[in-house]
What does this fold into?
Amino acid sequence: MHQRAARPGPHTSNPYIVLAICAGLLVLTALVFGATVHHGFVNYDDELYVVDNPHVTRGLTGEGIRWAFTHSHASNWHPLTWVSHMADVELYGVTNPGGHHLTSLVLHAATAIILFLVLLQMTAALWASAFASALFAVHPLHVESVAWIAERKDVLSGLFFVLTIAAYVRYARRPPSIRRYLLVAGCFTLGLLSKPMLVTLPFVLLLLDYWPLERFSNETIPNSAPVGRRSRTAIMRRLVLEKLPLLALAIAAAVLTYAVQESARGSLSHVPMWSRLANALNSYAAYLWKFVYPVDLAVFYPHPGNALPSWRIAAACLVVAVISAAALVSRRRHPYLLVGWLWYVGMLVPVIGLVQVGSQAMADRYTYLTQIGLYVAVAWGAMHLAGTSSTRRRICGLVACVALAVLSAIASRQVSYWKDSETLWTHALVSTSANHEAHNHLARALAVRGDTDAAIRHYRQALEIRPDFVEAHNNLGNVLAARGDNAAAIEGYTTALTIKPDYVEAHNNLGLALAEAGQLDAAIAEYRRAIALDTEFAAAHYNLGNALAARDEVDAAIVHYEKALDVRPDFAEAHNNYGTLLAARGQADAAIAHYQRALAINPQFASARRNLALVLAGRNGS
It folds into this structure.
């Protein structure tokens, strides 16, 4: 029989010590991640999720909440995450990223504290629970999840993950209750609505049944016969059946996620399944290495495609096989090793790359909940190693404190790279090789700063690495257009559309370039193609309105200005141009209202101020 976990009683731990550990976890998390409240947004999904998302920038509204639950966006359906971003805008506004970072920090700290309390409740092992939770709180691999506003889904789903486990422990340790089971299912559902990666949670609960809850033993069945194959099979069947409603929720979430991520798949569809399997095995080993040696962490790791050397694949296979065998062999004496290892392996399955979404090989954020199993294995392994010897306990305690101090220092350093886009992507280029995404996003940051020569150089480096990189072709076109090289810009947009004909932004940008070249009919056609692909693309509606106004099709232009403002009420340029059309039609009061809205959004908007003055002067003169 494997070792029995002590069942916590009312006097298992001194409540003041427990409270002090909770406070320590809070302080430790704040020390490591507190600098994020001074960071800004980064140009990697933060715009897509918050800054340029009109449904989010309006704050908490009934319409926005309906949108969150009924639409997918950015190849994801996680309505609760969208609602949390809306709540942040309601609290802090869009121009205060520090508030958004603060919310993520609080969620992460709360998850670490609840994880500690749940582990303590399950095992009564005070210091092992504290050490595992502290590892979770400060490990550098978690910086991406906490310091990246667009990864709110990680910290939010993490909170509901540990709450689900807490509710499950309460359900499992007491007589069967539908109400307690519904609480488990409710927390699990909220987690799935935050991030569908939690689909593996029923599997984790089954592992916890094995250890430390020990529900596989016959004592969980009243009046059971002596231990035997039949009784064990009956227990297993009952525990699996118990998870079926949760599994049904997980399957529904998985199917929905697969459907909405269709547009994000296919960027590496040319990579055969064997290569994806090889990358998956390599990633399992790479995550383990970064767990032990978390340096050279980057926001993006390029997928190797078919280029992984055979020796690395063989080494990864050997590592996974040896650890799996060791955990299986030691399961009776050290069940936490098997549980921790299977937790890690199982939770990574949805994001290990067998179904490729995006062009990354792996991502630090995928370890946020998966490596809790490793923290448990390490913490309880250290507790077993210390045994009852006071000397060994002191040594293990000292080693644990040193490890936490080192990890905290590395994590704090990693946090500093997230302060702005330029720093983030410069570090990614230092930490990785042949990183097309890093070149592309660094170029975007440099272009915003006005360093167009450096931006063009990085876009071209990105295209040298990956010639079919449509975003880089489009973005290079933007920089070239801004420099007045319209012909080269048109070539860049056209190349992007040759590779990806449904690339909405490239259609809109090509329209702008064609309009600049005097080809107004062709420009209008491109704007209409962009709108056909995305009916809520405010910029395309605005640009089409401008083109139609230039052709004196005023009524049609007004329709598109109104649509642009319906999608983006804070679109100052659309308010200004709409006001100009209204003024030309003699609707001075309506024009003034739009100019005033434009100035309320952007008080430095000189054109709107001038137009407002002209209309007021004309009205007063009349």
Q: What stands out?
A: Confidence is low (pLDDT under 50) at residues 1-11, 219-225. The chain has two domains: 15-416, 535-622. The radius of gyration is 28 Å. The chain is about 70% helix and 0% strand.
